[in-house]
Amino acid sequence: MQTNDSYSFDAIINRHKTNSLKWDKYKHQDILPLWVADTDFKTAPVIQKALEERIKHGIFGYTRTDQQRNQVVADYYQKKYGCHVEADWIVWVPGIVASLSLAIRSLSKQHQQVFTPDMVYPYLHTTPAASGKQANHLAMTYAEDRVRIDINALEKRNAKDVRVMLFCNPQNPGGAVYTREELQRIDAYCETHNIVLVSDEIHADIILDKDKKHIPYIDISAYALNNSIVLGAASKAFNVAGLACSWAVIANDQLRQEFKNEMHGIISEINPFGYIATLTALTDGDEWINSMNDYLRDNRDFLMAQLNAIKGLRMLPLESTFLAWIDVSELKLEDPCAFFEAAGVGLSSGKDFNDANFLRLNFGCPRSMLEEAVKRIKKALA
Ligand SMILES: Cc1ncc(COP(=O)(O)O)c(C=O)c1O
Fold this sequence. Notes:
By secondary structure, the protein is α/β, with parallel strands linked by helices.
């Protein structure tokens, strides 16, 4: 695996005056923003260079996507995961959240319900209702400190009136990378109950444990290939979320056409910068992403050692993502998020993900910033 230590993940980059959602939340306050899931790293130099070239052109009209570029995505799945994808299975969408809604709308009828993990990225909870469907939560398990859908419980679930299951792999928050065996059991359940699974794989390229491997859901079986929608993007891994570009892999012609029909009049073309950034990431981003994962692994290990030495905090081990999931229930705080904000550390409330015992901390930042956050946390709890 090629890595390069010369990328400057240690650099502190001032993000004020860039309309940053993450940093403007605490504008003029001495609070380190470790909440929303973008990192404080500059994107890969190859991406920045490709964007600069495009900007120099000066004309930024509508983007046309084509088969040749779709093949870049297909080749990526083959190279990275050994998974066969065909160019015409790819549908470009400005964002994954939009695709969750499009999938629910195109796949299910009015009276049908949507299965979704009980503890997960909030839009997997809210898009069913926003699409006129009822969300039906699937129990999680924290066994062996891996947060994931409780598959034993799932296998006992009645799936009457359920056509769609939303799924997040790697799991955010918690960072579990589902194993092939786990995916096979979920797929077997879906096949038995004629369910189409929508797999949000936005964090797929941020794998911290070297012995873990992301498996695209379509790689699991012939049923999964024909009855799933896999959602991917370079946005999290390469820190280009603001450029609004993602793709859906839909092998089944009919499902793909119905998904596209839902886009009509609602979803516009993807923007040219997002498209260029994504294609560059997939063709030339490997060395950079490997280096970032090395950096994140060290950040994770540092944070884990520090936080777990503090009485009342328990950070769960995580296999993927830059989002630590920290159990603060022992502290018995009325409002844990507000408590740490007052200490100068801005975290995401576990309530947003449906588990108020936890806080989420984004460690995708320079080490010195993380060290300062740990210092503040220790001081607040001393
Ligand atoms: C699991 C997951 N899905 C989707 C998104 C957002 O995707 P997009 O910005 O492409 O809509 C995020 C952002 O944090 C996420 O963590």
